[in-house]
């Protein structure tokens, strides 16, 4: 029981930190885009068969690319060539721009800059052109010009509005809030109700006063210890030094 509560608290903390990470939306006039469905935990991979020779590219959209074995912790894209890894875009150096070179094309270009400088002084930059299409995410091409890496993808997750409501409705466009916010709102409401009802019961029924009115005060005083236990438990699992029996080491 104790370990479950500890893990839960750690999970909530990690979730709140993660949901505060990089912005992933873009508005071009009335077209509103949310690219978060394009995050790919295994990372996108492409090995061009053309003049780029032996390089292979790894990248992600709106999130760091776990596969990039480079020292930059904010790496969103990288190339590996002859065993050498190189960052070619940072998640934190991001810019969204409209696609304007073709009419009737929806989508956006997400530019991740801040990679190490080329000899020409250009910071290596990944320019991801992501066009709206009717099908699942597809990689069209990857090419390089003077240390700007052009990644071209099409995806149904790169379309405005999230599932087009066609003609008609005057008032109907719902902005919609993400699952993360729903979770946070439910959590806040639950906490408020819990504290409110708890204080009420402790005051009226138990006759408690002062800090003792706070619901389950003894438990909450011990929470910092639980969090520490949870962190040690997870660290133990990761480093393999954890003493808990009954779990298989992988
Ligand atoms: C993630 O990228 C890999 C490699 O490019 C691809 O096979 C896979 O379909 C992608 N997953 C999603 C959800 O797009
Ligand atoms: C990269 O080049 C720019 C000028 O183009 C320069 O201002 C910057 O200091 C360089 N950065 C590094 C790490 O060399
Ligand atoms: C729908 C919409 O407003 N599209 C605009 C996107 O941005 C480009 C460039 O700023 C405009 O030309 C489009 O009209």
TrEMBL record:
BP-aspect Gene Ontology terms: autophagy; protein transport
Q: Where are the transmembrane segments?
A: 180-203
Where does the protein principally reside? membrane
Question: What's an example GO cellular component term for this entry?
Answer: Golgi membrane
> Quick one: signal sequence residues?
1-22
- Disulfide bond as a keyword? yes
Q: Which PROSITE patterns match?
A: MRH
Which UniProt keyword terms apply here? Autophagy, Cytoplasmic vesicle, Disulfide bond, Golgi apparatus, Membrane, Mitochondrion, Protein transport, Signal, Transmembrane, Transmembrane helix, Transport
Topology class, membrane: Single-pass type I membrane protein; Single-pass membrane protein
User: Which cell locations does it reside in?
Assistant: Cytoplasmic vesicle membrane; Golgi apparatus membrane; Mitochondrion membrane; Preautophagosomal structure membrane
Q: Which residues form the MRH domain?
A: 22-161
Q: Does the keyword Isomerase apply?
A: no
SUPFAM superfamilies per UniProt: Mannose 6-phosphate receptor domain (SSF50911)
**Family of this protein:** Belongs to the ATG27 family.
Q: What is this protein called?
A: Autophagy-related protein 27
The taxonomic lineage of its organism, from the top, reads:
Eukaryota, Amoebozoa, Evosea, Eumycetozoa, Dictyostelia
